[in-house]
Amino acid sequence: MIGRWLREPLLHFLVLGVTLFVVDGYVHHSRGGVESFKQIALTLDDLRQLDVYFESQWRRPPTPEEFNRLVENKIQEEVLYREALAMGLDKDDTIVKRRMAQKMQFLAEDVAAAHEPTTAELKTWYEKNAEKFASPSRATFRHVYFSFDHRGQHTHDDAVKALAKLAGQPEDSKLATALADPFMFQDYYGDRTLEQLAKEFGPAFAQGLFQLQPGSWQGPIAAGYGWHLVWV
Fold first, then answer.
1. What's the predicted TM-score (pTM) here?
2. Domain membership flag for residue 151
C-alpha cells in the first residue's frame, strides 16, 4: 500500500507544489528583509516628535530650513545606527549591555505597576492635570494707538478723552481711527496668545488686554511706545 502511494503522481504533484511554495516564500522574505533594511521611512509621528522636541528647546516652531536639518540629522542618525549594527559594534559592548538591561528593567517595572484604572480614577486624575491638556487662551482685538512721540506727557490724557468720545461706538468706528495716531503695524490682531502679544507689545499690554471684557472700547493700556484703546 505504501509503495503504491509513493508511486502515485498526485502525491508527487503535491510534494512538488509545497516545495515550490516554501522556496518562493523564503526568497521573497529574504529580498524584503534586504530592501526594508536599506529603506528609511519617517512617519508623521516621527516628524511631529521632531517638531515638538525643537519647540520644547527653543520655545518656538522651527523654520522650514531648520525642520529640514532636523529630518536630515534624523536620517543620518538612522544610517549610522544601521551601519553600526551591520559591523557588529553592539556586540560585547559594556555600555550597550547596560543600556539594554536598564530598558528591560524599566519595562519590567512598568508592567508590574500597570493596572486598568477605573472611570473614577481617570476623572480624578484628569481634574488634577486638566491644565496640561488646555489650549492657551487667545484674544482677537482691534486697537487704536496714542504715541508718546507725538503727544508727550499728554498721551495718557488724550487716550482717556478719546475713550469717552468712543463710548457706544462700534468696533469699526471711523471716529476711532480719526482720534488716534498712525501705528506702524496692524490695527487688528486675530487669535493671538498672551505669549505672542507679549513679544509684540510687551508683557504689561498682554496681561492688561486679557483682563478686559469683550464688546466695547476699553483702556487705555500701556505698551512700549504709547497707550492703546482696545476692542476685544
1. 0.45
2. yes
